[in-house]
Amino acid sequence: MKKERNYWIDVLQKHLSRRQALRAAARAGLGMTGLALLGCAAAPAPTPTKAPSAAATPKAPAATPAPAVKAALEKVVFSYQEDPTSLDTHLDSGRAAVALHDLLYDGLYRWSQELKLVPMLAQSHRLIDDLTWEFKLRPGVKFHNGEDFTAEVIRFNVERHQDAAFKSRYISDYNDITKVEVVDRSTVRLVTKAPNPTVPLKFVQSMIAPMQYVKEKGNPALTTQPVGTGAYKFIKWAKDDFIELEANEAYWGWQKGGPFEKAGRIKKLTFRVIPDQSARIGALKTGAIDFFHNISADFYKSVQENPDLDLIENKAATQPFITISELKEGPLRDKRVRQALNYAVDVETIRKSLLGGVPDRIASFLGSAFELSYDPNLKPYPHDPKKAKDLMAAAGYPDGFEIVFDNAEAGHEKQKEVVQAVADNLGQVGIKAAIKPHARAEDFNATAKKAGNGPVGILYDTAGTSRIDPDFLLWDKIHSKAVRNFGYYSNPTADKLIEDARSTMDPEKRRKMYLELMRLLYDDPPCIFLWQGKYTFAYNKKKLPGLRTVLWMPAFYDYTV
Predict the structure, then answer these.
(1) Predicted confidence band of residue 113 (pLDDT cuts 50, 70, 90)
(2) 22 — pLDDT class (breaks 50, 70, 90)
(3) Range in 33-37, 177-181, 266-270, 365-369 with the lowest mean pLDDT
(4) Mean pLDDT over the full length of the chain
(5) Span 111-127, average pLDDT
(6) pLDDT band per the 50, 70, 90 thresholds, residue 19
(7) DSSP-H helix ranges across 403-551
(8) How much is the CA Rg of the chain, to the nearest whole Å?
(9) Is the pLDDT score of 326 beyond 90?
(10) pLDDT number for residue 71
């Protein structure tokens, strides 16, 4: 048996701590001593407010000031543009849904604002051998209904994800776990088919559901009556209007020694669905809401000019792209044609003219948010219509061709305009792209792939993860057997690199594989590469001066000045 070790400490010391911590330190004006390494260390303590001085008594010794706690806010209203489809943490991975899940439930770990891995329901983990991960769980935690959180609950959650009939959104994340061993009430071991360095990250976004509640009420209960261990408890859901939550005063994370013990309480949270961006801005200015995500570049100036409001930008581990389908014989199976599509589209002009230059260009499938696979020396395709035409001619299509451009609504800023601009650019090199819109509710991409009959041209697609490891998106979108590989991309070398990287425990070896894969995908593009998004927020800075955000989520459980 190999020597026991904490894998993520190894990863982060060897890789992330060099680049990510230095960059974060530079932005914040801190030295390296001000940044804890990512891993299983405790969450950094929030900066406390000044404690009131003790009452003056001439004979008594000076009292030691108690830890300062921010006074409670009675109510905060926050908004996203869409309603969740489910409040079951295993069924909906949309932004609004996950933001709500993050308040109702806990995972084994959670990212901090600085993207440090904070121990939550797991206090620590270790790698016993290359196939076996052991987690020490936090004792004494209870679900909102009084149910105990134990190692058996972890077994139940893994099996729930693996149940094909349940249709977990995260089923592919858990299919490599072959065994769950309950060692004792607070210790669980997960055994995988092959070495897998990302096991702890599986429990960041897909959080922990209650075992007894689901067994008694059935799976559908969590969709509309969620029960978690989180900082807020569910009260009411008026579909397509609002969701009400209230503070869980018994929340373990707010107790002494918890990661958020100095956080101020917000007694009541109300989530409002406001689809229209200008309506959200108006509601923020009048005080009807206090915070919303996502704010588009068109409204930046309006917020910046208001003394009561402010903006937050977070780098996003998500990106849109134009998938190129290789399902059927034709020009799109030729990599020269797929390269031509990338040369034909003036991504830089589209990014600046439609999106205010806010998102960052990406050169290959993943951007700089994925530190392990990011190659700063790989430059994005330049806009070169002549090069595009030359490649098409070499592939046997000097006069171009016609394709369908499926646009499945993803709720992205200026999506319709972006799609039209891409189609216009393609038309300039002889590729006639007929735009075909689809409502998001149709789940067009997944339905077409399941039927095995499409898409057959190009389509607006998107990928993102809060796990911030390349494996999750590459296995989900690029591997030839990926469920969400809507372009039917198939490259045996890419498959092998993805498979090898996800079973390699050495982070430096993984990085080399991912760098090779990014260069391969650049040369043999599965899509038209666009940009890496940013999570943007507008909020009332006078009411919420201590607002923290993590990725696209408001960290109301850690509300601190």
Answers:
(1) confident
(2) very low
(3) 33-37
(4) 86
(5) 90
(6) very low
(7) 415-427, 444-451, 470-477, 492-502, 507-523
(8) 24
(9) yes
(10) 54
For the beta carbon of residue 276, count every other beta carbon within 10 angstroms.
Answer: 10
Name the token pair of 497: 């690199």
Beta bridge partners of 407: 437, 460
Q: What angle do CA 539, 541, 542 make, to 5 degrees?
A: 130
Sign, CA dihedral 99-101-105-108, equals: negative
Q: What b-and-e string marks burial along 115-141, b requiring 16 or more CB atoms within 10 Å of the CB?
A: bbbbbbbbeebbbeebbbbbbbbbeeb
Taking the alpha carbons at both ends of the chain, their separation in whole angstroms is 48
In this structure, of 105-119, 450-464, 505-519, the range with the lowest mean pLDDT score is: 450-464
What are phi and psi for residue 554, nearest 5 degrees?
Answer: -80, 130
Residue type, 251: Y
Instruction: Please name the amino acid found at residue 276.
Output: D
Pairing of strands 242-247, 232-238: antiparallel
Q: Which of 329, 371, 353, 383 shows the shortest CA–CA distance to 528? A: 383
Residue 145 tokens, joined = 């209904």
E-assigned strand segments in 44-164:
73-80, 109-111, 117-119, 122-129, 132-137
Q: C-alpha distances in angstroms, 380 versus 346, 361, 384, 432, 523?
A: 11, 7, 12, 24, 11
Q: Write the CA distances from 339 to 202, 382, 485, 518, integer angstroms.
A: 34, 11, 19, 14
Q: Which residues contact 231 (CB under 8 A, 6 or more apart)?
A: 103, 247, 248, 251, 253, 254, 260, 556, 557
Omega before 294 cis (within 30°)?
yes
- Kindly report which listed range (98-102, 140-144, 355-359, 378-382) carries the lowest average pLDDT score: 355-359
The domains found in the chain, sorted by start residue, are: 230-315+535-558 (3.40.190.10), 318-532 (3.10.105.10)
Question: Which structure tokens are listed for 486?
Answer: 């809507």
Q: Residue 115: its pLDDT value, please?
A: 80
Residue 457: which of 334, 331, 320 has the closest Cα? 331
Which pLDDT belongs to residue 440? 75
Q: Using CB atoms within 10 A of its CB, is residue 258 exposed (0-12), middle (13-18) or buried (19+)?
A: middle
What's the CA gap between 284 and 373, in Å, rounded?
38
